[in-house]
Amino acid sequence: MLIDFHTHSTASDGALSPSELFSRAVDRGLAALAVTDHDTLAGWEVAQTLQSGGMALVCGVELSCQWGGATIHVVGLNVDANSEGLLGVLNHLQQLRRVRAEKIAAALERLGAVGALAGAQALAGEAAICRPHFAHWLVSEGYMPSVSRAFDKWLGNGKPGDIKTLWPDLADTVAVIAAAGGIPILAHPLKYRFTRTKLRALCDAFSVAGGVALEIVNGRQSESDITQLKRLAKDKNLLVSLGSDFHREWAYGADLGVDIAIAGDASGVWEMIL
Ligand code: AMP
Ligand code: MN
Ligand code: MN
Ligand code: MN
């Protein structure tokens, strides 16, 4: 059975509209799809108006937060889209993104990239600006040869466009998802590049706050990474989740859908949802 509990649409930094994402998932034979845009439910809102031949659509979101001086992403699945607490936080996050985008643009202008804010906003459309919008704009204007170079040189960790934002605390973020009836999932645990000790501490903090699951597959991952994360989930008494983190069709990225067989005997969040 193929499922995908981590995907993006044009409502954040994905390239497919929510309906294109939905259709692609149906075409690929998914049993379940969660739309999990950064800090917004707008993608899911469009997708949920569509019909499917049996594919379950899960209301989701990927929330930006912070812990231990790093930005952490928590996916919330099956959240109540009318939860006042969640809607309040989403509003706040959208505002933080607007302020941050202005600061990123100012930093890029200082580096000579003129018109960065308008350029990124044009690519984002009605969505709040995410760093990939700046990266794609820099490439389209010839300031950078590729998106990955744009992150390496200007937008990534410790670079001028890496504006420190006071994202909400991890614990508050987990709590708001839980209060909205959702399942909090620690997204892509290996992407934070923490030491093993710090990663285990993050899992403990996540668990204590009410976190439920660890994402053991996030896009293309090596067998050994998956094995390591499965073991970590078991040690920390967390369920597991699976997703592609699909943003666009890309030769080096994963397409929609992960086979739940990958989880082996671990308990998956899909057992709570489907
Ligand atoms: P933001 O939430 O605005 O800080 O943007 C984070 C997003 O940027 C992530 O969700 C990824 O989609 C993308 N991203 C982060 N690092 C890289 C990278 N090195 N290369 C390409 N995309 C990246
Ligand atoms: Mn993204
Ligand atoms: Mn993420
Ligand atoms: Mn994501």
Explain what the structure shows.
- This protein is α/β, with parallel strands linked by helices and 274 residues long.
- The protein has helices spanning 18-27, 42-47, 84-110, 116-124, 131-140, 147-155, 170-179, 196-208, 223-235, 270-273; strands at 2-4, 32-35, 56-67, 70-77, 183-186, 213-218, 239-243, 258-259.
- An 8-stranded mixed sheet has the order 7-6-5-4-3-2-1-8.
- The relative contact order is 0.16.
- The model has no long low-confidence stretch (mean pLDDT 97).
- The structure holds adenosine monophosphate and manganese (II) ion (MN) (3 copies).
- The site of adenosine monophosphate (AMP) has 11 residues, from helix 5 and helix 6.
- One manganese (II) ion is lined by residues 6, 8, 62, 245.
Largest sheet data = 8 strands, mixed
Number of strands: 8
Number of domains: 2
The CATH topology name of the largest domain reads TIM Barrel
What is the percentage of strand-forming residues?
15-25%
Instruction: Identify the overall geometry.
Output: globular
Class derived from helix and strand content: alpha/beta
Indicate the radius of gyration in whole angstroms.
18 Å
| Order of SSEs | EHEHEEHHHHHEHEHEEH
Alpha-carbon distance between the two ends = 12 Å
**Helical amount among residues, as a percent range?**
40-55%
Q: Any low-confidence stretches, pLDDT <50, length ≥5?
A: none
Looking at the overall shape, the CATH architecture of the largest domain is Alpha-Beta Barrel
Spell out which ligands are present.
adenosine monophosphate, manganese (II) ion
CATH class of the largest domain: Alpha Beta
CATH superfamily of the largest domain: Metal-dependent hydrolases
Strand order, sheet with most strands: 7-6-5-4-3-2-1-8
Q: Quick check: average pLDDT?
A: 97
Number of helices: 10
